[in-house]
Specification:
By secondary structure, the chain is α/β, with parallel strands linked by helices. About 40% of the residues lie in helices and about 15% in strands. A 6-stranded parallel sheet has the order 5-4-1-6-7-8. Strand 6, helix 9 and strand 7 form a beta-alpha-beta unit. The longest helix is centred in the N-terminal third of the chain and has 15 residues. It is globular, with a radius of gyration of 17 Å.
């Protein structure tokens, strides 16, 4: 059994949340006169809320000490206003993997508070491990989130398959020495080239996971350090 565990990112993979997250960040930054570029934010997806806030503040020449309050304001706005939903087929995909004897995990840059405030507590219970930004000292693109998931599942990273949708998540998984499939739910293929395989959407994962026992991929090299930025 090559892949004993399949680890899913949350935003943009399990759930269609990126537009709601973008709106929440826009609101949080607006009082400081910052207009957040949509593509810029989507390419940052996977970073912890504190890291996102700090990075954007730094780019705009503002005090990074404001990051914690901006991140909290963003999370409050998201929980109060989000209308996001699960991607079609994700629940049955998780269930099918568990039926095939695979462990499944969620590895997200989101806070635990936001996940539980999103009305998906029932789905979280389906995962064998849930790693959020609160659980790690260093978020994506650092390998720590995926390494911690493998550790808690007691599975070698070489036997884990990550499902991601953004460059920093791919870099995190690859740096943790895992294979990675990227889905084009939020970004075009040109941004996802470091993954071992790229598919158009969640529906395209179904036949792949149905044949996970025989799945073989040509593993790409681990991204160099400068590619993680």
């Amino acid at each position: 059994m090559k892949y004993r565990a399949v680890l899913f990112d949350y935003d943009g993979v399990v759930a269609n949340t990126m537009e709601d997250n973008y709106s929440a960040w826009q609101f949080a930054f607006s009082r400081y006169g910052i207009q957040l570029d949509r593509l810029r934010y989507f390419r940052m997806e996977g970073m912890t809320p504190l890291a996102v806030a700090g990075s954007i503040l730094d780019e705009n020449g503002l005090d990074p000490g404001l990051a914690a309050e901006i991140a909290r304001e963003k999370e409050r706005y998201y929980i109060a206003h989000h209308i996001s939903s699960l991607h079609d087929g994700i629940e049955s995909l998780v269930s099918a993997l568990k039926t095939r004897g695979r462990l499944v995990g969620l590895v997200s840059g989101a806070s635990r508070e936001r996940l539980h405030g999103s009305g998906i507590a029932w789905l979280l219970g389906q995962f064998d491990v849930v790693i959020t930004s609160d659980a790690v000292a260093r978020g994506k693109p650092d390998p720590e989130p995926y390494q911690l998931a493998a550790q808690r599942l007691e599975v070698s990273p070489a036997n884990c398959l990550a499902i991601e949708n953004a460059p920093l998540g791919i870099a995190s998984a690859k740096s943790a020495l895992m294979d990675c499939i990227a889905v084009c739910t939020t970004l075009d293929r040109e941004y996802l080239g470091e993954a071992d395989m790229v598919v158009d959407g969640i529906a395209d994962l179904v036949p792949i996971m149905n044949n996970i026992d025989s799945l073989e991929m040509v593993r790409r090299k681990k991204p160099a350090h400068h590619e993680l930025k």
